[in-house]
Amino acid sequence: MDCLTATCQLAIPDMAHLLGYVTSNAAHARRMVRAGSHSGRSVTICGAGPSLARHVRRLPATTHVWACNSALLYLIRRGARVTHGFAIDSSEGMLTDWAATFDVNYLVASSIAPRLRDHLLAAGRRLTWFHSYLGVPDPEGWAPPDADTSYELDLYRRLYPASVRVGYGLNAVPRAICLALIMGFADIRVYGADCAAAPDAPPMPTYWSLGGAGASPEYRAWMRALVMYADGRTAADAFGESAYLAEATIDGVRWATRADMTVSARHLVDLQRAHSGRVTLVGDTLPAALARQSDAFMRESFPDMGGLGRVVNFAPELVAA
User: Fold this and answer.
1) SS3 track for the chain
2) Per-residue pLDDT averaged across 309-319, rounded?
3) pTM as predicted
């Protein structure tokens, strides 16, 4: 991967509201995920990346089919069998992804927006809850009951029936895999977890306009053409025309992506390697390309978390650290 590198800071935009969401959702959490509840069964987990379009008609007939975020609408509209919707996203953007509801079970994190919860309950949908690690700082002056309990964990324990907490990965699919592992699924097949745009899009133009006044017209046009989702939505649709992306060539294939997705790609590879024979990544995706690389490449050349939400070795063009 030959490109400039930078350090990018990741942040949850609605962090200030998350503990309020957790508190509000507690009164509605009647069904909780239990560890080992599906021991030995099989599950297909679907992200909404562009590669999903090539598999939508031939997904395996596993016991469960989980559709993450907008993959739910995409799969059902194309006649695919889906048993569960999955969401950890606390933003109200999920109200767009799940504006239409369906006769499936909904696996939702205790930190989803209350408006999404109310929307699903008003439609008569079945919700099963779990916890997704947020990393919210402890309030000033709060005294933990023991050295290993954070304020966030204390809320889960005090307000909810016993359940499980997932915390590996920045996006929905890695955390869905973690939940499936905790639930005991023996065969976990993952589709549409591209963590990038469709491969071999046109090369990324220079980001900066003349004089450094924001994104260049060429870059904005590139973002409008860069397919990020199976339903055809582009990078501009998802992130805006001026969002920073990076590109790199791996084994002769060009990939374009953003900082959080590079980390999720690494996490997906780590999960497959740690649970070989149990977790399988399917399709022409960035994680599948990375899975063929050496440990040295992953360690020395590919972006990773550097602590406190920092992504190191990310390489959008000319982004100041």
Assistant:
1) CCCCCEEEECCCCCHHHHHHHHHHHHCCCCCECCCCCCCCCEEEEECCCHHHHHCHHHCCCCCEEEEECCHHHHHHHCCCCCCEEEECCCCCCHHHHCCCCCCCEEEEECCCCHHHHHHHHHCCCEEEEEEECCCCCCCCCCCCCCCCCCHHHHHHHHHCCCCCEECCCCCHHHHHHHHHHHHCCCEEEEECCCCCCCCCCCCCCCCECHHHCCECHHHHHHHHHCECCCCCCEHHHHHCCCCCCEEEEECCEEEEECHHHHHHHHHHHHHHHHCCCCEEECCCCHHHHHHCCCHHHHHHCCCEECCCCEEEEECCCCCCC
2) 33
3) 0.89
